[in-house]
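Lecture 7, part B: from sequences to assemblies.

Below are the input chains for today's worked example.
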Amino acid sequence: MPKSPLTFNLAHYTLFSVALLLCTVLGSIEVNAGMFGFFKQYNVHLSPEVKGRITINGTSIPDIEIERILDYDQEYIETTRTDQHGRFYFPAKNIKSSRPGKLLDESRIRQVIGLSYQGQRYLLWYTTTSSLVAEQVLVEKLNNLSCDLANPEKRHEFRIHENPSFYHVILSICRW
Amino acid sequence: MTAISPRIAAELADLVYQIKRPTKSGDFRIDSSPDVYRSFTFDLSEGPVSGSSGGFLGLFQKTTGFAMIGRGKGFYEGHIVVAIRGTHSSHDWLTNGNVGLSVGLSGSSVHSGFNDTFESMRPVLDRVLTPHIRGSKFKPIHCVGHSLGGALASLTADWIRIRFDRPVNLYTFGAPRVGLSGFARKTSFGVDRIYRCTHGADPVPKVPLWPFIHAPLDGSEYRLDNDRGISIAAHSMNRNSTPGYRNTANSDDGQTLQKMSQGFLNSPVRLSYQNRHQASFSGYWADKISAALITLLKDAGYYSAIIAQAGIGTTLTFYDLVARTLEDIAKASTRFAEQTAGLLGHMLVFAGKVAVQVVNLTYQFIKWVFDQTTSELYRSVKQALDRN
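Predicted structure of the full complex, as C-alpha cells:
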C-alpha cells in the first residue's frame, strides 16, 4: 500500500512526537478514506412526521404553502399545501450520510417549518438538535402543530426526555 | 471577579456549532437554553445574517474562524462573551503534524495556522467589540471555545487583554496547545481565570507536543471525566456523545469541577529502561514522555540551546535537531546513554512495540524506531475510527 506524502514526511520526526503523529495520521486516514472503506453511511433522522393546522383568529386557512427546511449536511426543502380545513402533513425524513463518521464532526440538525402569508413570514417551528435519532418530545410536538397566525412567536422550553438535564428550545407561533 | 458557570461556558462553545446561515426564506433564530437566554443577548440584527443595520452584532463568519458575541444581562450585566469555533477547513491545522510558528500579538511564538485564522477575524472582532467596551472596567470579557475554537479563544483573550485592558476569562474544551512557553506565560499571568477543560482520552489537548505548552503554566486542567487511553470520541462537544463536554461540564459551579495537575513540566522525569513496560498508549504517557525528554536535555545541559531554536522554523526542523542532539547526548556518558535508552524504551512500549530492544543509540536507530511507531499508530488509529 503506498504511503501518503504526509506520512512520508513524518518519517523525519523523532519518537516522542507520537501524539502529534496520531493527529497527522488521522489526517492521512481521512484523505485516504476510500482505501480503508471509511465511507460508511449512517442513518440520520432529520424529522419525524409533521401534522398541523393553520388558522387565523380561529378560522382555518386553506391552500396555503408550508415549507419544511431540514439542514444537516445540506438543506432538504419540501413544501406542501393546507387542505380545506387548514390541515397539512409532511412525512418523516431520514437520510443516509457519511457525516457522522467524519473526524471531529460537530454537525447539528436544524428543523425549520414556516409559511408566508400576506407578505408576513411566520415560523411554525425552529429548533436545533445534535441527536441523530428521533427524540420523543420533538415527535410529539411535531405531530400536533396548532398554529394560529394571530399568536406571537414564543420560545417554548421542554426538557429533553432522553437527557433531562437539557432542554429543547423551540421558537414557534404554535401552541400545545 | 465573576466567572460564568461551566454549564453556560459549555453551552456557548456548543451553540456556535448550532449557528447556521439563514434559510432561503430568511429564517434565523438562536435556540439557546433557558440558562443562556437569561444571561446573554445575541442580537443578530447586524452582520451577514440579515444584513440590516443597528444593534449589537451577534455573528459573523470570515475565512476559517467564526465567532458569536453576546452581551450580559441580569446577573451578568456588563459582561461580554465571545464564543468561537473553527470550521471544517481549518481542522487541517489540528491534523497536520508539521507545525509552523509565527509571532503573535504579544510578541511570543504561536502556532502559525491558529494565528493566521485569528488574524483574519481580528479586524471584525475589533469593529464589533469596540463600541461595546464601556461601563465598568471591572466587568469581564469571557472567551469560550471547543477544539480549534478553544485555540482561537486563547488568542482572542490575549488580544483583548492588550487591546481593551479589561479583565478576561478563558474557557476551553478539548483545545490544542497554542504557543510556546512565552505565550503560555503571558496567558497564565494576563488572563484572570483559565478553565482548561479536558477529557482523559481526548487526544486533541495533547497536540502539538512540546515545545508547545498549555496555559496555565502550572499544568493544571479541569479533567471532566476519569477516562484513560486515547479515543477520538472523547473529543466531542455535544450532549449526544459519550462523554460529550456538554454532559461532563453540566455544573453550575466551577468549584465542583475536578482540578488536577500532573505537574510533569515542573518536576524532573527520568525513565529507567527496565521499567518501560509500565508505559501505555495514553495521554498520560504522552505527557510523561515529553517531560522525560525535557529532563534529559536539561540534565545534559542542552536544554537552553535547544529551546532557543524552538521558535525558529517548524516543529519538523526542531524535532530533527532534537534527534541529532539525543544521539550526541547518548555518546557523552554511560549515564546519559541509559537515560536515553529509558526514554526510547518507554516510547516503544507506548507505541505497542513491547518486544523491541533498544540496542544502539544512533540517529538512524531513532529514525527506525520512529518508523515502527508510525505504522503501529496508524493501525491503532484505524481501529479507533473503525469503531464508529
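Note for the exam: Chain A touches chain B through 61 residues (CB under 8 Å). Keep this in mind when comparing with the next example.
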